[in-house]
């Protein structure tokens, strides 16, 4: 994890500029998320510079937004005006929260870049209430068109830590195999296909 953390520390200052080209798709993502977090206590993992948290915090009761990168969190804290939003550095594999602490957990654009994503899902299950919602939008790079494959190649050369290269269908299957029922899913058109998934804990 240390190498990937170095990648995000080094790129924290330019992350928001990099994401601007997908601004329209992210507006759609915020629209999907706002009703899910309405009046809820929310944990966001891998918040990066806090783009998602800052855009949905008005709808939520409280958001704990976390990232493993200190530099990303420093960027995220800039310009924060809401008392409902708290940023901190945390390891998504070892969270400091009690069991069943949150109504909603968001882990966006992250499960494909962490080793052992099933371990992250296990820790999410622990801190999420039994009737809670996991929202896990993830880039599904195996669905990349030609130009997406070219971009991904150069990102890999730059040190981008891609660990799981799923198709959208494979990603949804991965969630189901790890104890989640996918209630809603859609693919958003961004620089890379972004598979949006809302999940609840599977019974049994």
From TrEMBL:
<dbReference type="Pfam" id="PF08241">
    <property type="entry name" value="Methyltransf_11"/>
</dbReference>
<keyword id="KW-0808">Transferase</keyword>
<protein>
    <submittedName>
        <fullName>SAM-dependent methyltransferase</fullName>
    </submittedName>
</protein>
<feature type="domain" description="Methyltransferase type 11">
    <location>
        <begin position="43"/>
        <end position="135"/>
    </location>
</feature>
<dbReference type="InterPro" id="IPR029063">
    <property type="entry name" value="SAM-dependent_MTases_sf"/>
</dbReference>
<dbReference type="GO" id="GO:0008757">
    <property type="term" value="F:S-adenosylmethionine-dependent methyltransferase activity"/>
</dbReference>
<dbReference type="GO" id="GO:0032259">
    <property type="term" value="P:methylation"/>
</dbReference>
<keyword id="KW-0489">Methyltransferase</keyword>
<dbReference type="InterPro" id="IPR013216">
    <property type="entry name" value="Methyltransf_11"/>
</dbReference>
């Amino acid at each position: 994890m240390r190498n990937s953390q170095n990648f995000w520390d080094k790129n924290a200052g330019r992350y928001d500029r990099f994401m601007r080209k997908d601004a329209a798709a992210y507006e759609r993502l915020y629209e999907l998320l706002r009703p899910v977090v309405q009046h809820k206590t929310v944990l966001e993992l891998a918040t990066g510079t806090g783009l998602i948290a800052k855009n949905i915090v008005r709808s939520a009761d409280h958001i704990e937004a976390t990232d493993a990168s200190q530099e990303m969190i420093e960027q995220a804290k800039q310009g924060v005006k809401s008392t409902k939003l708290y940023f901190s550095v945390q390891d998504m594999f070892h969270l400091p929260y009690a069991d069943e602490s949150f109504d909603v957990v968001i882990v966006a654009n992250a499960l494909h870049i962490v080793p052992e994503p099933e371990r992250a899902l296990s820790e999410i299950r622990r801190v999420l209430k039994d009737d809670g919602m996991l929202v896990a939008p993830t880039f599904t790079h195996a669905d990349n068109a030609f130009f997406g494959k070219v971009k991904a190649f150069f990102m890999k050369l730059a040190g981008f830590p891609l660990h799981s290269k799923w198709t959208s269908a494979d990603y949804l299957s991965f969630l189901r195999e790890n104890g989640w029922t996918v209630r809603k899913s859609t693919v958003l058109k961004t620089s890379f296909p972004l598979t949006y998934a809302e999940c609840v804990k599977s019974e049994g």
